[in-house]
Amino acid sequence: MVSKLIYLVEGISGWSGKIGSWLIVPISLFTLLEVVLRYFFNSPTNWASEATGYLFGIMCFLAGGYCLRHGMHVKMEIITGRLSQRRRAVLELITSTFTYLFLIMLLWRGYLFALEATVAFERSGTEWNPPYWPFVWFLPIGAFLLLLQELSHLASNLICIAKKERP
Q1: I need a surface site. Which of 2, 9, 34, 106 has the fewest CB within 10 A?
Q2: For residues 38 and 30, what is the distance between their CA atoms, to the nearest angstrom?
Q3: 60: Cβ–Cβ under 8 A, 6 or more apart, which residues?
Q4: Rounded to an integer, what distance in angstroms lies between the CA atom of residue 18 and that of residue 22?
Q5: Mind giving me the DSSP string for the chain?
Q6: 11-34: b or e for each residue (b if 16 or more CB lie within 10 Å)?
Q7: Which of 105, 89, 100, 95 lies closest to 160, judged by CA?
Q8: What is the pLDDT of residues 104-157, one digit of tens each?
Q9: Number of domains present in the structure of the chain
Q10: Residues facing 123 on adjacent strands
Q11: CA 56 to CA 1: how far, in whole Å?
């Protein structure tokens, strides 16, 4: 049962990472457009840089769980690289407590921030002035996806400690 939940969460992380990775296409196109318009036609846009920033933020929030699933976050390999798989799982179990606290706080405060922005129909306040509130929702969504993957990682570590292997 636990292995099925781990598999489900890792599937969700995989899909969110793939969706997030596709955002590099409009980010690249908007950046290219801005460079061409600015330097070849002396006619910069007032929206490309801001749109690129929003899309980049969404990409990062969606890719957090994917990165955790594939071990792409920064780690102290000097210490953990010398440990057995079981001892590494125990160390990750201890240190992940701080991650849970951070992610729960990020999820809670991000939700409140997104809710306030939605209720106020907040806009960016720039010259382009797009609605800001839809982008803000990716903060708690990303925190939730990362928390799910971290819980899956916790279950995997507990199985490793109990059975001396990873599922």
Answers
A1: 2
A2: 12
A3: 20, 142
A4: 6
A5: -HHHHHHHHHHHHHHHHHHHHHTHHHHHHHHHHHHHHHHTSS---SSHHHHHHHHHHHHHHHHHHHHHHTT-S---HHHHTTS-HHHHHHHHHHHHHHHHHHHHHHHHHHHHHHHHHHHTT-B--SSS--B-HHHHTHHHHHHHHHHHHHHHHHHHHHHHHHHSS--
A6: ebbeebbeebeebeeebeebeeeb
A7: 89
A8: 999 999 999 999 999 999 999 888 999 989 999 999 999 999 999 999 988 888
A9: 1
A10: 131
A11: 36
pLDDT for the residue numbered 140: 97
Task: Read off the tokens for 82.
Answer: 């010398």
Distance between CA atoms of residues 9 and 3, nearest Å: 10
- Select from 163, 154, 150 the least CA-distant residue to 91: 154
The residue count of the chain comes to 167
Rounded to an integer, what distance in angstroms lies between the CA atom of residue 54 and that of residue 1? 38
Q: 19-76, pLDDT tens digit by residue?
A: 999 999 999 999 999 999 999 999 999 899 999 999 999 999 999 999 988 887 776 6
**Which domain does 22 fall in, by range?**
2-163
